[in-house]
Design brief:
There is one protein chain. The chain is of the alpha/beta class. It has a single domain, classed as Divalent-metal-dependent TIM barrel enzymes (TIM Barrel). Helix content is 42%, strand content 15%. It has 12 helices and 11 strands. The strands form 2 sheets. The chain has a 9-stranded parallel sheet. β2, α3 and β3 form a beta-alpha-beta unit. α2 packs parallel to α12 and α9 packs antiparallel against α10.
Length: 305
């Protein structure tokens, strides 16, 4: 099976990246072990990854950032742009922000753009992440899907690809939400970012989601969960930040998710693109390089490279 995956998800088809959320947290800056940018990207390369996401500690000047990544043999796997199409006055600001991000990523040689709708999101607030997540009206769904298709056209015209990231605490959190988003958007304009842990945290099966929308997946975040922490977040009405600090997320090779059938599903669909390891953990408790190497070894065992 590994040999077969090595052919169908080999380095000619996919690239392995890692998110900087192993080293610090961009949503919650207090979750930090004072690891500087240079150390983080050096450890990403040392662990055997080919690319990385962009975080708040990265140099803001594109030429400086590109030189630092090139030195370590790293490419940019993705940026992040939050959208606010469900808030009436934020449509144009969202487009403007997206275009700024696109220009930066293009200058860095990247081709992927990742977005998530954060209108009325509960994930940044000190409140129950489940009970307070938004439920969009039909009008808000229409605003979101038309806005995403507009961004998709902008991305396509620049030779880039837009993928939507379903996320805890947002209006596109559950399998039903993802199904509606996929059914309501043009496949040529809006792809799906499959985040294995966010959908599992929400209470749905990442393998089922991958199988249902295999032809729409344009980007992948490989992240695992600790079910006992998920249960505690639900039962105690905890916030997203509290869940992160308790260790709800971890890397592939740790936690509860079996990634082999998910990767087989991607191979069956002839997936080509990034497979990005992610784990929003407290770096004071989970040594980033240790977990990055654990994830890379786990993927090598499954993929055969």
């Amino acid at each position: 099976m590994t040999a077969l995956l090595a052919e169908r998800l080999g380095p000619d088809k996919v690239k392995l990246g890692v998110c900087c959320t192993l080293w610090w947290n961009d949503d919650f800056p207090t979750i930090d072990a004072d690891i500087p940018f240079g150390q983080a990207v050096s450890e990403m390369a040392l662990a055997g990854f080919q690319g990385c996401s962009i975080g708040h500690k990265y140099p803001s000047e594109p030429a400086v950032l590109k030189a630092a990544l090139d030195l370590r043999g790293l490419q940019v796997s993705e940026p992040w742009t939050s959208t606010y199409f469900t808030i009436d006055e934020m449509g144009q600001k969202t487009v403007d922000s997206f275009e700024e991000t696109l220009a930066l990523i293009k200058a860095l040689g990247g081709t992927e753009l990742v977005v998530a709708e954060f209108g009325a999101s509960s994930h940044l607030l000190p409140i129950d992440v489940f009970a307070n997540r938004p439920v969009f009206t039909d009008a808000q769904w229409d605003a979101l899907t038309s806005g995403l298709e507009k961004l998709g056209k902008i991305a396509n015209s620049a030779g880039m690809k837009l993928s939507y990231h379903h996320h805890m605490g947002t209006g596109v959190m559950t399998r039903a939400d993802v199904d509606r988003l996929m059914a309501s958007t043009d496949p040529a304009l809006v792809h799906l970012l499959l985040d294995t842990a966010h959908i599992a945290f929400a209470g749905d099966d990442p393998l089922d989601l991958a199988r249902a929308h295999a032809d729409r997946i344009g980007h992948v975040h490989l992240k695992s969960i600790r079910p006992e922490v998920v249960s505690r977040v639900r039962e105690e009405g905890l916030s997203f930040q509290e869940g992160v600090e308790l260790g709800v997320f971890t890397v592939p090779g740790d936690g509860a998710i079996d990634f082999r059938p998910i990767l087989e599903t991607l191979a069956d669909a002839n997936y080509q693109g990034w497979l990005v390891v992610e784990a929003e953990q407290d770096p004071n408790k989970a040594i980033p390089l240790e977990y990055a190497k654990k994830a890379r070894a786990y993927l090598a065992d499954i993929l055969g490279w």
